[in-house]
Amino acid sequence: MSKTSNFFKTTAILSTALFTLLGGCLVEDPIDYTTATGSVSDDGGQQGGGVSDSTAPVAVSVLIDNGASSTSNTAVTLDISATDDVAVTHYLASESAATPQASDSGWQSYQQSTSFTLSGSNSLGVFQRTVYVWFKDAAGNVSSNSVSASISLGVYDTTAPNAVSVVIDNGTDNTTSSSVTLTLSATDDQAVTNYYASESAVTPQAGDSGWDNYSTSVSYSFDNTTAGTKTVNVWFKDAAGNVSSSVADTIELLNGIEGVTAERISSGEYHTCAIKADDTVQCWGRSSEGQITVPSNLGVVKSINSGGYHTCAIKADNTVQCWGYNANMEATVPSNLGIARSIDNGQHHSCAIKADDTVQCWGSSGHGRSTAPSDLGTVSKISAGISQSCVIKTDGTAQCWGDSGHGRLTVPNGVVKDISTGGGHTCAVSADDLAICSGYDAFGQATVPSDLGTINSISAGGVHTCAIKTDDTVRCWGSTSFGKSTVPSDLGTVNSISVGAQHACAVKTDGTVQCWGYNNKGQTNVPTELQ
Is the pLDDT of residue 33 over 60? Predict the structure, then answer.
């Protein structure tokens, strides 16, 4: 072996020994950044190594509902994919093509399958929707390009309108007009487009005639103008032709649209008022307190009531207007009364049933007659007398307040159908259609005739009482002076009756008015056009 060969051999041995002595520290193995995610800090830097992450993720793919071309649901599933030299940590999906910033809201933790809600539409049809997706790593690097996918969203309306309601004439109990106002309400996932109103309960088809454009307030005319309870059924429809279930409301149409009839006449102390065929008011009798001078701005009305020396009417808009004697503010309508369902006047006070079925009274507070009990609750009928007031509550029971003298506040137990309080007595119609009276009885006004039989309604006056029997004839009892309790032989059958202090007036079934009794102020002189 030559000296040169020995030199190289010796050098190699020494080099190996030196490397072994240094433990191989002079050479590092290369780092695989695509797999070494555990060695990267949250800010993208290499832990302890000073190596930062400056490479953004690369968007690879997105599929909507596994690649479907169309959907009818706005809720879809996105299958997304991206790569990064360290790790993909977040994604942001949007229907906007504008590239987001790393600090923007909307970034979600990265997962390969996630939910997304497409924007909907207020109209029906097929709409193209494109979803763009960006990706971000822990260092805040955002993919420079998005990946996107498109799908056709079909908006098809298959849900009928719901939450439907109808109210006739703001909820009033009765009307004298064959034309009423319907307040309508309905909701739909798209839009309510039409309504159908009918007195028939047969559900209309979407293609039937008779559908009208939907509005929250519409007019309706009864098919049959014969008096009685009218039920209006209403359905709603959307643009797709989906028809709702029906909703209904009822109202009492007072008899004889062509004449003055049921509950459209009222007798006071010495005056009488009636609603004419054109729904305007005419009064006659004592005029010294202005109670028969109808205000020029009254207009058409729905109901009327004559008190001692004043008169009140419920107007077409369901507000109240009063006129006449006002020394006790009985003709001054409270500013907070609002709309009223019905009204009744006493000698020097007035009471109304409000839209929420509660009672409000005003005028003289003597004997507490105008102070409704705090526990009264809701009511369906009210009657105001000389010094007391009585109601039928919505549970059918009666309650009175005011002057308790002579037992006039005593009411029958159980359910009653009608109630009327007069000068010093109170009468009601029991659940079995019998008359029951209590209170002042010096003239027999509270003593029900034993042969009266069953009745429909009752009216208590000053010192006499009259009832409409179930055969629609009238029977009166009590004081006989001035012939006030003597029913005229030619009266015939009637629809309604109103008893004043010493007279009475009835609306006959032919639509005419007839009065009898004390006539010192002309209170029984029915105007020619009303006879």
Answer: no
